[in-house]
Write a structure and sequence with these properties.
The protein has 20 helices and nine strands. It has helices at residues 15-24, 33-40, 43-52, 63-75, 81-95, 106-115, 118-135, 137-140, 161-167, 189-195, 237-243, 263-271, 307-311, 345-354, 357-368, 379-402, 417-435, 438-442, 444-449, 486-503, and strands at residues 146-156, 211-219, 224-232, 252-256, 275-279, 286-287, 299-304, 317-324, 331-335. β2 and β3 form a beta hairpin. α1 (15-24) packs across α2 (33-40), α4 crosses α16 (379-402) and α5 (81-95) crosses α17.
Length: 504
């Protein structure tokens, strides 16, 4: 795929100065890939990143090129991190001809990235989040709310000793419980998640492997990633959601499945004046003052009051119960928006149907960007890889949403993350080839001469450590030497004489 790009100037200006000029113009839409990056990564974003990293000593890799290359490595194609690093670094050098060149080796990049504090990446994410609120201010509110979906998923990690020791092997601690009679019908996935206090709802990607858990908040109307939280593979996603409350804007409506039903969480959201819309299961205890049958129930006021909260004399949570009828099964929703005029049942059903876009987000992150399994092998690197890749995913989805029409009478279709990624890769390839062609072509044959195996003596075993489930290799035994008898000697002489006669 070839994309016609706007030719860049002969001497490329700095990203900060160019983005400042583009953002200063009111209503000016970005055109090139660099303009789109500068539209979100404004000078204020880089300023906050520099302030968060001011206690770090100076090294070959400065903060801006380090984060820029980290983001581009998520967008570039490649089977390994060093391969993506070469493309990302070449793209950065092509855009910043007059700047100091960063390091050349991937090992140096990893060393500098390991020294970069994680709060620096979080400061950049916070600044980008504020920028998203400014850019999409007119499209943030939908029917009086900012619909935000929340869900979680696991990310597999390499099976290194450090990751296995710190992250565990993706197995939750099992509690001893009394045996109960099997239910009449099997539990659904949502009911099982609501029953467990540390529900994950998603089976491990690979059993007995180190895993990270990511809880992501998505703007359901725009399809743009808003905020996220990382933890170990057995993390409590309800606790993640409680920690993400500070990142949510006003007028937010949190939409989630039945795994997020919990008294402490809902009481915290109620205290923070945040609205929620959560699916219910048979495990959620609801009470009504008068007896009511569910057969013809549509909606009404109920009270969420678990038994343990009753024993501690905690007050019940008044919620509105909604029944969304479907073709196969009815969906029961619970919201703390008691006013029917503010949140009609039809609007609530629309918002919950949009919740499936959370699953599309994880599909984009895992399959489109190739993050089913992270590639870093240390705890420090794997956290920075996850934070940088999630930030890159946010910018990718934001660029796709930026191109959507602001006012349209027809139904707006969200952009395809795969097609947006292909356009970004084509732009990276074209810009890199435009500036880095002649000099690299002159040294190509010299670099080929250096692409050889290292001539060194192997002193250690090639197998670093024993992997579970792997059987030991059994070498073949020595050959058997048998003595030829008189019959075999006569037969050998006969066959050799016949073969010699045929060749003549």
């Amino acid at each position: 795929m070839v994309v016609a790009t706007k030719p860049l100037p002969v001497t490329e200006k700095r990203l900060m100065s160019q983005s400042a000029g583009s953002s200063a113009a009111a209503g000016a839409a970005p055109e090139s890939f660099l303009d789109c990056l500068g539209y979100f990564l404004t000078p204020q974003v880089w300023k906050q990143a520099q302030q968060a990293a001011r206690h770090c000593r100076a090294w070959r890799w400065q903060t801006q090129p380090l984060i820029f290359v980290l983001l581009c490595m998520t967008w570039c194609a490649g089977d390994s991190l060093p391969e993506r690093f070469e493309t990302a670094r070449a793209f950065y050098v092509a855009l910043h001809q007059r700047r100091r060149r960063p390091g050349r080796t991937f090992a140096g990049f990893e060393k500098a990235l390991g020294k970069l504090p994680v709060p620096v990446l979080r400061a950049v994410a916070t600044a980008v989040r504020c920028r998203l609120a400014q850019v999409f201010a007119k499209r943030f509110l939908i029917d009086g709310f900012i619909p935000l979906g929340c869900d979680g998923s696991r990310l597999a990690c390499p099976r290194s000793q450090e990751l296995e020791r710190c992250l565990g092997l993706g197995q939750k601690k099992k509690k001893k419980r009394k045996k109960k009679a099997p239910p009449a019908c099997p539990q659904t996935q949502e009911e099982h998640g609501a029953a467990c206090p540390e529900s994950t709802k998603t089976c491990p990607a690979a059993p007995n492997t180190p895993q990270l858990w990511v809880t992501a908040v998505l703007h359901l109307g725009l399809g743009v990633l808003w905020s996220w939280r990382l933890g170990t593979g057995n993390a409590n996603e309800r606790e993640h959601w409680r920690l993400l409350v500070d990142t949510l804007p006003r007028c937010a409506l949190l939409v989630a499945d039945a795994g997020y039903v919990g008294y402490e969480l809902l009481a915290g959201l109620q205290a923070a004046s945040l609205a929620f819309l959560i699916r219910l299961s048979s495990r959620a205890p609801l009470y009504v003052p008068d007896k009511s049958a569910l057969k013809h129930y549509s909606e009404g006021l109920v009270y969420y009051w678990p038994q343990w909260a009753q024993k501690k004399d905690l007050p019940p949570i008044p919620v509105r119960l909604l029944r969304i009828r479907g073709d196969k099964v009815d969906v029961w929703l619970m919201t703390n928006v008691l006013d029917e005029q503010r949140l009609p049942k039809r609007t609530a059903g629309k918002f919950y149907r949009w919740r499936w876009r959370n699953e599309g987000l994880f599909r984009t992150y895992k399959r489109t960007l190739g993050k089913v399994k992270l590639m870093s092998r240390t705890v420090a690197q794997v956290h920075r890889e996850a934070e940088g890749s999630l930030l890159a995913t946010q910018l990718l989805l934001a660029q796709g949403a930026l191109a959507l029409p602001t006012t349209s009478t027809t139904k707006v279709v969200l952009p395809s993350a795969r097609k947006v990624l292909l356009e970004m890769r084509a732009e990276i390839r074209n810009v890199t080839g435009m500036y880095l062609g002649p000099r690299q072509a002159q040294t190509y044959f010299d670099r080929l001469a250096q692409a050889r195996w290292h001539d060194r003596h192997q002193r250690s075993s090639k197998i670093r450590r024993r992997w579970p489930g792997r059987q030991d290799h059994k070498p073949p035994g020595p050959p058997k030497i048998l003595k030829m008898g008189t019959i075999l000697k006569d037969k050998m002489a006969k066959t050799l004489a016949m073969a010699q006669a045929d060749t003549c």
